[in-house]
Design goal:
The chain has about 450 residues and is an alpha+beta fold. About 50% of the residues lie in helices and about 10% in strands.
């Protein structure tokens, strides 16, 4: 691995093995941000190198995590653009809007997407939560601003100075507002037909042949039939480690509760008549987060009534096709690349954890916690009882999921644009009587 991926730093590297020995543990949580950088990388905010960033979690797991930090002002600008320039049936207009949006975003963002350490990323999130009543929800502290309000110690979470964070926000506030105004003005100009750029007719020019493309094609033609070129994906998989999953150090509460009788459970089932999620779950359903059955999720309300609900949530899955991963990674701001999603049925108590997080802290949404997070949070859940969770732990997990939420936004934008292109391809096939491949190349 060291010879194949000499500029990466995975669980196999000498650097990682030295850190595990130094901290006296065999458990490791090492993410793709850490694995994608070399051993001498240092954080642009706190200036610590990797041996100073790595730290033990409360569960005795060595955390080696770097996160991509991007300006949420761009998300605000994209929302403004979508509101002023909704999709139409006119393919050319959709293309013009898409291209102008991509060209404009670098002029709006206050800083480029930047890889920073997990502690600087958490410090930025904590500062925004503390100042939530004062700071615009789409404001993001730049790496240079984060550096002004953190107190740095090797192998520890940063302390933050809220007053310094407030001063950083006040210094950036006018520029932030000015960029929003610029985004609104430009979105309106595009909606009014301004700044149009003629689209080149005919097929796209491929440019000069590249050696790597020729070598790849020669190798592909010589490889055994059905061989899948997954070397990059295999290196990624072998580099990462996720020993944090399912390792919550919080002791589990096991209150004594009464199970429903057969008659009481039958009454609960009868009350679910017409409830689609309950019917879809089937007889043998188990909650994928807490592992409880339909009968075990039944519990008595404060009024003594037996209740049970099953909710549908969305679980986003990483891209597992290597070619698609490579294409998406080229323009992605987030380190995580989402490839698809699925709908999952979970119990009301697991769903309540996310709902309560949103109620307690502004700025979180349905995607702030993953199914894996919920499994770790609830641990060995008690039948017929609500979950007892540590919301400090829950908030920390949600803050750490900022890159995932960014990746979901990018995936939804990519998916929307892909649908537009597919519609254009089908229209071209019908209008010109072309094959799918020719129409795709032209579009």
């Amino acid at each position: 691995m060291s010879a194949i991926a000499h500029m990466r730093d995975g669980r196999w590297s000498t650097n990682t093995k030295t850190l595990l020995e130094r901290f006296g543990t065999t458990k490791l949580d090492l993410n793709s941000g850490w694995a994608s950088t070399w051993t001498k990388w240092n954080c642009p905010c706190c200036q610590r190198e990797k041996p100073q960033i790595a730290r033990l979690s409360t569960g005795g797991i060595l955390l080696c995590r770097l996160e991509f930090h991007h300006d949420h002002l761009v998300d605000r600008a994209k929302r403004i653009y979508r509101e002023r320039n909704p999709r139409t049936d006119d393919r050319d207009i959709n293309i013009q809007v898409s291209r102008t949006k991509d060209a404009l975003m670098p002029l709006i963002e206050r800083f480029e997407p930047t890889l920073i350490c997990i502690d600087c990323n958490l410090a930025e999130g904590r500062a925004k939560l503390e100042l939530a009543a004062e700071i615009d929800r789409d404001f993001t502290f730049a790496p240079s601003e984060i550096a002004t309000f953190i107190s740095v110690t090797a192998n520890r979470v940063h302390d933050i100075d809220i007053e310094k964070a407030r001063r950083a926000w006040l210094a950036a506030r006018d520029d932030f507002a000015d960029r929003i105004d610029f985004a609104e003005r430009m979105a309106q100009r595009i909606a009014g037909g301004r700044h149009r750029r003629e689209i080149a007719p005919g097929q796209r020019l491929l440019g000069q042949a590249q050696d790597r493309d020729i070598i790849y094609r020669l190798f592909s033609s010589s490889a055994p039939q059905g061989y899948r070129h997954r070397l990059g994906m295999l290196i990624e998989m072998r580099s990462l480690s996720n020993d944090s999953a399912g390792q919550s150090p919080k002791p589990k509460h096991r209150p004594k509760v009464r199970a429903p009788t057969d008659a009481e459970f039958a009454a609960v089932e009868a009350a679910q008549h017409g409830n689609k999620t309950w019917m879809l779950a089937g007889l043998d359903w188990l909650c994928p987060c807490c592992g409880r059955s339909k009968r075990e999720i039944c519990r008595r309300s404060n009024r003594g009534l037996w209740t049970a609900r099953i909710h549908r949530v969305v679980d986003y899955l990483p891209e597992d096709d290597e070619e698609s991963f490579a294409r998406r990674r080229y323009n992605a701001a987030s380190q995580i690349i989402i490839g698809s999603y699925r709908q999952v049925l979970i119990c009301h108590d697991c769903r309540t954890v996310t709902a309560e997080l949103k109620r307690r802290k502004a700025g979180f949404d349905e995607q702030s916690l993953t199914l894996a997070d919920l499994r770790e949070i609830v641990g060995a859940a008690t039948p017929h009882s609500p979950h007892h969770v540590d919301f400090d732990l829950v908030t920390g997990m949600a803050l750490a999921n900022a890159p995932l939420r960014e990746a979901i936004d990018e995936y939804n934008d990519h998916r929307s644009r892909a649908f537009e292109v597919a519609a254009g391809v089908k229209s071209m096939m019908k209008m010109m009587a072309w094959s799918w491949s020719k129409a795709r190349d032209v579009v």
